[in-house]
Amino acid sequence: MKNRGAGRTLSRAVFLVPAGIAMLAGVDAALLLLGLGAPVSAPRLGDLHGMLMVVGFLGTLIAMERAVALRHPLGYAAPLLLGLGGLTLLTPAPLALGQLLLVDGAVAFVAVYAALWRRNHDDVVIVELLGAVHLAIATVLWLRVDVPWLMPWLVGFVVLTICAERVELARLAMPSTGGRTLVLHAGGLTTALVATLLWPQAGARLAGLVIASLVLWLVRHDVARRTIRSSGLPRFSAAALLCGYAWLLLAALAWLAGGAQTKGSAYDLVVHSVMLGFAISMVMAHAPVILPAVLRRPLPYRAVMWVPLGLMHAGLLLRVGAGDLAGSHTIWQAGSVVNVVALLLFVVVAIGAAVAGPPRRRPARTDPGQRDPASKASGIPLTPTTRRPS
């Protein structure tokens, strides 16, 4: 049984290799876009930065987690195709081949959510399915338009998927009508994004309004408001969650105030507030829950995890505050480099924590004069609920 579990862990890890390669290539592309030295320089790599990070990296990770939840071999077609699509973009093959693989992967991803919804007809899964539809629309649009024009659909994918995952993980802390409220916000966001195809400014402002409403509702009901006062992993996760909500709210307000953006500092602010400040912060918050469910290997909390988390948000403050808003190109570059370091450092820390295993507990000290020795402290639960068993 032990060998069987190890083999399953290895086979699942293979599906995540393309996601890791896409992330490294996306980081390399980011350095090229910053005008700094990068380990690899390829003619079209800089133009692929956004799709590599959002679809090749985040999309493959999320698709893999959902495939594990589905517990059906066909479910792995989604992470396989998305991963292959990301890898193909990095080869000399025609760009259209990689794009079509991403389209196929996104369609397979929608099918995975459809199968999950047929299992229990959960409102949360409906929202996740709609997020996958946003991803599919983005990949299809990429066949005809440049990435900045399809970015709202990528934002929709990230926002709906992660917010729905958060409601699912913290279901006991949410009101009984939480799923229905989430569905209403998802429908409103989808309507707004469709409007951006015809009326970009009005659609973007409506999308900003819906996202701002969703963030305020989540912050009001999320257990993170209470666990931030605890310690250890619950406090770390809560800090990452609340910071992520703050960045998403900033992006929503930028859309609400400025409308659609396809270039310049306002575009940079919205994209990286969502994709780094919100999405990557949520990945850091949920990694100790999600990755063990996928790989069947624990990812124990270590205090050093605060370092990449702090660097991520500090770098983003520099990039957005002094760079995008104040117009300092040098500080914008510096903050962006800090973000790159933070992302890579968290990967290293997570791998190290998984390999090292749970930290050894020191034996509790007891007072010989007391009749009843102190009992061992019980573990702190990570969230009110856990993922479905894989």
Low-pLDDT parts are 366-390
Helix and strand element order: HHHHHHHHHHHHH
Largest sheet: none
- Return the structural class: mainly alpha
What percentage of the residues does DSSP assign to strands (E)?
Answer: under 5%
Helix fraction bin: over 70%
Q: Radius of gyration, Cα only, in angstroms?
A: 21 Å
Global mean pLDDT: 87
The structural domain count equals 2
DSSP summary, beta strand count: 0
Q: Count the helices. How many?
A: 13
End-to-end separation in angstroms reads 16 Å
Overview of the molecule:
The model is unreliable at 366-390 (pLDDT under 50). The longest helix is centred in the first third of the chain and has 32 residues, at 2-33. The chain has helices at residues 2-33, 49-70, 77-89, 95-120, 123-141, 147-169, 178-198, 200-221, 224-227, 232-258, 264-295, 306-325, 329-356. The protein has 390 residues and is mainly α. It is built from 13 helices and no strands. α7 (178-198) packs antiparallel against α8 and α8 (200-221) runs antiparallel to α10. The chain has two domains: 11-121, no CATH class; 122-293, no CATH class.
Task: Please specify the SSE layout and strand pairing.
Blueprint: H1 2-33, H2 49-70, H3 77-89, H4 95-120, H5 123-141, H6 147-169, H7 178-198, H8 200-221, H9 224-227, H10 232-258, H11 264-295, H12 306-325, H13 329-356
Helix pairs in contact: 1-2, 1-3, 1-13, 2-3, 2-4, 2-11, 3-4, 4-5, 5-6, 5-7, 6-7, 6-11, 7-8, 8-10, 10-11, 11-12, 11-13, 12-13
